[in-house]
Design a protein that fits this description.
The protein has 9 helices and 8 strands. The chain is α/β, with parallel strands linked by helices. It folds into 2 domains: 130 residues, Rossmann fold; 113 residues, 3-Layer(aba) Sandwich (Rossmann fold). A 4-stranded parallel β-sheet has the order 2-1-3-4, with helices on one face. The N and C termini lie far apart (74 Å). The chain binds zinc ion. The site of zinc ion has 4 residues, from loops.
Length: 294
């Protein structure tokens, strides 16, 4: 008895390594790992209780996170690995993830990718500085692109579970409403010069016809002299009086900007799981922050 049980288990484990259609033996639900929070939020809504969606707890921006060897191993064992594409999650290319189980949620959007130029593509400043690479990756800030990503997730999950089409319709409707809300909120700011504190708002800018120039600052750090000079250079030709921030900036930075007539507004891209609320509530808070500028 013991032996045959062991062999059965060993057989299941072996099958799990070589085939994509063997589910987590304990739960019978597929395990779905994601590289950022928006993809996890979409997957959670689309799968309901049909999948175990995992987005590991991490500090900072998931785009520049690196897993431990153990965490990378967990990703490799997942039934599905949801990727953002557009060179997001710099750790992915070197992690030997199993290609057949990787789903690039932005496949098909390549013509809408936005190339980065200027400071964002290079590391500079402090030791903690990071380079964004060649492509802007915050695709989900254009809800139309987020709808595409959600559709890719739904298709991939449907291979594993009997999903409710109503969940996709509801998520799509929420994203379309967000799109309409953002369009209305930004309408009065069209062509108004705006500042981004970090180069993450490109797809938002493109979608809503904004006129934004970005520096490469962090909400929890004080810009050095060179970074202030860079802002001064931008302001010479780009007379902005609003700066969008990923999170509440340091009070002294906010005050220094206010002294230059620049108002700080939090527009959280929500790449990481929020402390409170969820993707939609954070996006609605962003909408409200823009509305409040009027
Ligand atoms: Zn950056």
């Amino acid at each position: 008895m013991m032996k045959s049980g062991y062999l059965l288990l060993a057989g299941l484990l072996f099958a799990g390594c070589s085939h994509t259609d063997v589910r987590n033996a304990e739960t019978s639900r597929p395990s779905v790992y994601t590289v950022n929070y928006p993809l996890a939020y979409f997957a959670e809504r689309l799968a309901g209780d049909q999948a175990d969606v995992v987005f590991p707890e991490m500090e900072g921006d998931p785009a520049f996170w690196a897993p431990t060897a153990e965490q990378a191993g967990e990703y490799r064992k997942a039934d599905l690995i949801l990727l953002n594409g557009a060179q997001y999650a710099k750790w992915v290319p070197n992690a030997a993830l199993p290609q057949p189980r990787c789903i690039n949620t932005s496949a098909g959007l390549e013509e809408q990718f936005i190339a980065l130029d200027g400071s964002a593509s290079h590391a500079h400043g402090s030791a903690a500085a990071h380079a964004h690479g060649e492509l802007a990756f915050t695709l989900w800030l254009n809800p139309e692109l987020a709808v595409h990503q959600a559709g890719k997730i739904f298709d991939a999950l449907s291979e594993w579970a009997d999903l409710d089409k109503g969940a996709l319709a509801a998520l799509t409707a929420d994203l379309e409403k967000l799109d309409a809300d953002l369009a209305a909120a930004f309408q009065s700011l069209e062509n108004t010069p705006l500042l981004g504190s970090h180069p993450v708002y490109q797809y938002l800018t493109a979608r809503y016809g904004l006129n934004m120039e970005s520096v490469h600052w962090e909400p929890d750090a004080e810009p050095d002299a060179g970074m202030w000079r860079e802002l001064a250079d931008i302001l010479e030709t780009h007379h902005a009086d609003v700066m969008l921030w990923e999170d509440e900036p340091l009070p002294q930075v906010k005050q220094a900007l206010a002294d230059k007539g620049i108002k700080s507004v939090v527009f959280n891209p929500c790449g990481n799981r929020p402390d409170e609320g969820d993707f939609m509530s954070v996006m609605q808070a962003n909408v409200q922050a823009v509305r409040n500028l009027k």
